[in-house]
Amino acid sequence: MKNTVIKFGSYGLLLGFGLFLIGLLFMKDIDMSTGEIIGYATMIASLSFIFFGIKHYRDNINNGAVSLGKAIGIGLLIALFPAVGIAIADYIYTAFINPDFFKEYVAMMEAKGNTEPIPEWGSGMMALIMFLTVMILGLIISLISAFILQRKTD
To answer: What is the pTM of this model?
Structure first.
């Protein structure tokens, strides 16, 4: 199981980090709403390796069987890799590349009519929120993948 988690988690990490860098290089002048959509698409693409990791474990390591609990566990462990990678990339972006990101985000929300006060978060808090967001999406994808791929031995 360990090799499967490392292999597919690393694939997700590399894809998430790569798509994040591509976004930085080629999409500097897009609005934040479009950037948000691209961000979620990046998360989902990097987490897609959860399905393939569980399937690989079931078919190639565990003789065609995997329980629901084991599949969810594998999925969450794979999700840790892209979650950490995307959180680090977010931290680097908000701390060094665009330190005014949060102020720009608040201005965008106010322009859209948001009247609720938004607490001012630093780069560390933003990275933590990104990590938790990816892990929640990872849990959802793990659950769906586990239900699809679970197969008990006969």
So the answer is: 0.88
